[in-house]
From TrEMBL:
It comes from Streptomyces celluloflavus. Gene3D superfamilies: 1.25.40.340, Dihydroxyacetone kinase, domain 1, Dihydroxyacetone kinase, domain 2. NCBIfam families: PRK14479.1 (NF011049). GO terms for molecular function: kinase activity. SUPFAM superfamilies: DAK1/DegV-like (SSF82549), DhaL-like (SSF101473). InterPro entries: DhaK_dom, DhaL_dom, DhaL_dom_sf, Dihydroxyacetone_Kinase. Residues 11-343 form the DhaK domain. It holds the Pfam family Dak1. This is Dihydroxyacetone kinase family protein.
Length: 616
């Protein structure tokens, strides 16, 4: 929506005022507007005798800075235009509104505009007789060498302030809340800054309100390691990374930069995995899984870890990792309660071991997770490219497992195409979902197929188990329907009478008539489960011609009959482009759904074709 000049009131010239008004409306219980200023103040401020902690920076970084105002955190925040410092006038007015008579601490990131405007505001406050101190935040290890003790911080030379802002604001706010004087609050803020380090990465740039083009971009298929929150160049460009590889990069760049751990801290580090605006929470949790493992392997103890958005960069795709080495004092301040629009911490003790899992972590390897660093306009890596050993055929595979493996291989090769077809109706996840489900089905069948080869009861047992695994792993409507198809087919095979004829007279055999019966049963089950009928542009439009062709050829050899039936299913799947969807989410599109084959019908035809190629 940021690319539409007038979309949702996104006029660049009024954007700051518009969103601040909306924030004040939504969180009137916590914050209120500063009169005649672009800032917000805690509803409970000013409080006589309390040091006022005033923070600030440009718009486009929410929850920083206005979302971190409230009891126990900042008293007020001055807000600039998008990616621009608030002016000295705005900082001054905001600080004056928050002054409770015990002095003011100004805290901001180390950027030239912020340093100048907050510095000018501090001079004006001092001239007005208000004791004022300033702390500049310098946590971004990618942006320069660490500040030197005793030397004034220089924004052209020293490190920037990024997501580690949160730790500094939290510690300073808690110190002020407990009654520390201005010197004490300033000391705490400076100490928290000295103990904090951040490293980030971006996968796609952002577009500002009212703009028709991105402010900055990241080349497709690449990741910028160390990129700043305004698009400042990073340390290096690399290919897209898996979640585990990204976590390793974040940790590897931070560990050598961590300050010496305080004595008595037991290796405690506050941890913040921060989203830059477009990266989803579930993706960040995947990254955090590896971050947590790596930190613990390094002898560190994550303390009250946070995963979410704290300092964003509008709609940038990316994450950053911040660590603050904790001593007892910083731990107590980090534990202290607060209540702001974007972050709340409840009062109460945080016992040792509270951040350790009491259940046994899943045994799956972290390194096998899906790539999460691709920009939204790029296609995800296909499952076949992940290289998991569970995805590869083995010489020992029995017929049902081999058939499912072939289906997986072919569908995975068409994953992107299936996603594009499904996107016509909405979410575009059919390719991803069916590949995920087939992968699970292969693994389940491989473990469950007892043999011997050619025994329908063996294949039936494998398909029953595979159907349950596919439905569980794939999820959604497609998972339920494909799971029912496999399970119902397996049920028919497993029920085969033991008196059926075989070449050697020992038991039942997998022949065309048996699979025609299974196809009939599968179609009935899918129709009952999904409520669809032939002609409504669903997978049934490929399954029905397959079933009928197989029944017509019931007296033929299975491999020949199956391939002919699969060809009929493939033709029918292509013909669904001429149908108008009448079932499921696509039905809402009406005539707009005409002209594109149904993703479910296409994937089913691919599966049936692949299975036919395994029959001899």
């Amino acid at each position: 929506m940021t690319t539409i000049p007038a979309g949702l009131g996104h006029h660049a010239e009024t954007f700051r005022e518009d969103w601040l008004e909306g924030l004040a409306d939504a969180y009137a219980r916590t914050v209120r507007r500063v009169p005649d200023a672009c800032g917000v103040i805690s509803r409970h401020a000013p409080r006589p005798g309390k040091v006022a902690v005033v923070i600030g920076g440009g718009s486009g970084h929410y929850p920083a800075f206005a979302g971190l105002v409230g009891p126990g955190l900042a008293d007020a925040a001055a807000i600039g235009d998008v990616f621009a410092s608030p002016s000295a006038e705005q900082v001054y007015r905001t600080a004056r509104a928050a002054d409770g008579g015990a002095g003011i601490l100004l805290a901001c990131g180390n950027y030239a505009g912020d340093v100048m405007h907050f510095g000018l505001a501090a001079r004006r406050l001092a001239a007005a007789g208000i004791d004022t101190r300033t702390v500049l935040i310098t946590d971004d290890v990618a942006s320069g060498p660490p500040p030197v003790d005793g030397r004034q911080i220089d924004p052209s030379r020293d490190r920037r302030g990024v997501a580690g802002d949160f730790f500094v604001f939290k510690a300073a706010g808690a110190a002020a809340e407990r009654g520390d004087d201005l010197a004490g609050v300033t000391r705490i803020a400076a100490h928290a800054n000295a103990m904090t380090r951040t490293f980030g990465a971006a996968f796609a740039g952002c577009t500002l309100p009212g703009a028709a083009a991105p402010l900055f971009t990241v080349n497709a298929g690449t990741t910028e390691l160390g990129m700043g929150i305004h698009g400042e160049p990073g340390l290096r460009t690399t290919r897209n990374l898996t979640a585990a590889e990204l976590a390793d990069e974040l940790v590897d760049n931070l560990l050598p930069e961590l300050p010496d751990l305080p004595p008595g801290g037991d290796g405690r580090v506050a941890v913040l995995l921060n989203g830059l605006g477009r990266t989803k929470y579930e993706e960040m949790f995947v990254v955090y899984r590896q971050v947590n493992r790596r930190l613990r392997e390094a002898g560190l103890r994550p303390y009250r870890p946070e995963v979410g958005e704290f300092v964003t960069s509008f709609d940038t795709a990316g994450v950053s990792l911040s660590l603050m080495a904790l001593d007892d004092e910083l731990t107590g301040l980090y534990d202290a309660p607060c209540d702001t629009p974007a972050f709340r911490s409840l009062p109460g003790a945080h016992p040792a071991g509270s951040d350790d899992r009491t259940d046994a972590p899943a045994a799956a390897a972290v390194t096998a997770v899906t790539v999460v660093t691709a920009a939204p306009d790029t296609q995800p890596a296909t499952a076949a490219a992940t290289g998991s050993t569970a995805d590869r055929a083995t010489a020992a595979d029995l017929p049902a497992t081999a058939a499912l493996q072939a289906a997986f291989d072919l569908v995975a090769a068409h994953e992107a195409e299936l996603g594009r077809l499904d996107a016509v109706a909405g979410d575009g996840d059919h390719g991803i979902g069916i590949v995920r489900g087939l992968r699970a089905a292969v693994a389940a069948a491989r473990a469950a197929e007892p043999g011997p080869a050619g025994d329908p009861r063996s294949a039936g047992a494998a398909l029953l188990t595979a159907g349950l695994a596919l439905a569980d792993a794939s999820g959604g409507a497609s998972g339920a329907l494909y799971g029912a198809l496999l399970a119902e087919t397996g049920a028919v095979l497993a029920r085969t009478a033991s008196g059926g004829a075989t070449a050697d007279g020992t038991g039942p055999v997998c022949d065309t008539e048996l699979f025609a019966d299974a196809a009939d049963a599968a179609q009935r089950a899918i129709g009952e489960l999904g409520g669809a009928r032939v002609g409504e542009k669903t997978m049934l439009d490929a399954l029905d011609p397959f079933r009928r062709e197989l029944r017509t050829r019931a007296g033929e050899e299975l491999a020949k009959a199956w391939r002919a039936a699969a060809e009929a299913a493939t033709r029918a799947a292509a013909d669904t482009a001429e149908l108008t969807p009448a079932r499921g989410r696509a039905a809402r599109m009406g005539a707009l759904g005409h002209g594109h084959p149904d993703a479910g019908a296409v994937s089913l035809a691919l599966i049936l074709t692949a299975v036919g190629d395994t029959l001899r």
